[in-house]
Design brief:
Length: 252
């Protein structure tokens, strides 16, 4: 019997253009079960565009190419359909939803897949808030209303662990966080990864959060094109020399 890991996500020759901007150019990426991939690049490289394309944001409909999730073509699938199949995207700037509590939002999202008993939900929510060091009183507050940027990112981790997707895409989750918040986010990622069938794509231009994780592959995105894929040693090159050696082909 083959022990080869199952392919979770396959992006094939993805192209996306906005007026006057080639956001993604022939982007290709394969992510397997249990792997953590980091997508790195300078600001404006197209990293967030790639995350939104995978998640099916209606404003990011691809011009050409295909996306497969667990061998199913989801290129034309709606965002909610992708979420129900097991995709999750954390936002770079989580939005406020007045009038909807964090608890209500998460339970509604969970019940799009299957009904869950209130006690079971509350018990799990209590366990996860404790794991992340989140104040339990938060869960009755309106989603992201009045929360700082770091607190919003912690709530994103709460959603991740409660929804328990097959593949999580974290878009600049570490952006603007202090050291303690980065540790909380890292704890959430590590807890998620305790299930070796779960996969992660971490989009970042800052390697700080990657220091707490075992990264299987690093993809370098420059001007909408993945110019290099390698192991975690690429992170050291970026930290020491920036992206220029990789662009010129000298960062081998």
């Amino acid at each position: 019997m083959s022990d080869e890991k199952k392919t979770v996500l396959s992006m094939r020759h993805i192209n996306k253009t906005f007026p006057g901007v080639k956001a993604l150019s022939d982007a290709q990426l394969t992510l397997r079960e249990g792997e953590i991939h980091a997508l790195m690049g300078e600001n404006g490289a197209g990293k967030s565009t790639l995350g939104n394309v995978i998640m099916g944001n209606s404003q990011y409909k691809v011009d050409r190419g295909s996306i497969f999730f667990e061998d199913e073509d989801i290129t034309s699938a709606r965002t909610d359909e992708r979420a129900q199949k097991g995709l999750f995207l954390s936002f770079q700037s989580p939005i406020e939803i007045p009038g909807v509590s964090i608890s209500q939002f998460i339970r509604t999202a969970m019940e799009t897949k299957e009904k869950i008993r209130l006690k079971t939900f509350r018990d799990k929510l209590k366990t996860v808030t404790k794991t992340l060091g989140i104040n339990e009183q938060w869960i009755n507050r309106e989603l992201n209303v009045g929360f700082s940027g770091g607190e919003r990112k912690k709530i994103e981790m709460l959603q991740l662990l409660m929804l328990n997707p097959k593949l999580a895409i974290l878009d600049e989750t570490d952006s603007g966080l202090d050291v303690d918040a980065v540790k909380t986010v890292s704890r959430g990622i590590q807890t998620f990864q305790q299930d070796d069938q779960k996969s992660l794509l971490i989009i970042t231009h800052n390697s700080k959060i990657l220091e707490y994780l075992h990264i299987d592959y690093v993809h370098i995105l420059i001007n909408g094109k993945i110019i290099k894929t390698g192991d975690a040693s690429l992170i050291k090159i970026i930290n020491e020399q920036g992206y220029e050696p990789l662009i010129t082909g000298q960062g081998e």
